[in-house]
Amino acid sequence: MKSYDIFRRDASGPVWLEARLYVENARARIQELAAHDPGKCFFVFDAQNSSVIFELTIGKNAEHRTHPQDASSGDTAGEHAI
């Protein structure tokens, strides 16, 4: 099974947090993490394709981003394709 890595962006660089087996679970998890830690940036990385498939920041003056590779699964409220 394919897994997706979840990271938080820090000033010193990306910090690995956990992995999820399904892309939907990874997406839901970064939404939870971002909601509980406003202003922090979280992203899901697909190691097989060596790419960030979506990224999310929630907070004052923060933007919400979904990478184009994720367009097939559809955007959810508060996320915008970049």
Care to describe what's here?
The chain has one domain. Helices cover 17% and strands 40% of the residues. The protein has a six-stranded mixed sheet with strand order 2-1-3-4-5-6, with helices on one face. β3 and β4 form a beta hairpin. The C terminus is likely disordered.
List the helices and strands and how they pair.
Blueprint: E1 4-10, E2 13-20, H1 23-36, E3 41-46, E4 51-57, E5 64-66, E6 80-81
Parallel strand pairs: 5-6
Antiparallel strand pairs: 1-2, 1-3, 3-4, 4-5
Notable features of this structure?
alpha+beta, 40% strand, disordered C terminus
Which structural class is indicated by helix and strand composition? alpha+beta
> Approximately how much beta-strand content do the residues carry?
35-45%
Morphology = globular
SSE arrangement, N to C: EEHEEEE
Q: What ranges have pLDDT less than 50 throughout 5 or more consecutive residues? A: 70-82
Contiguous helical run count: 1
How many strand units? Answer: 6
Query: What's the number of domains?
Result: 1
Q: What's the overall average pLDDT, rounded? A: 81
Strand order of the largest sheet: 2-1-3-4-5-6
How does the major sheet shape up?
6 strands, mixed
Share of helical residues? 10-25%
Give the end-to-end Cα distance, rounded to a whole number of Å. 28 Å
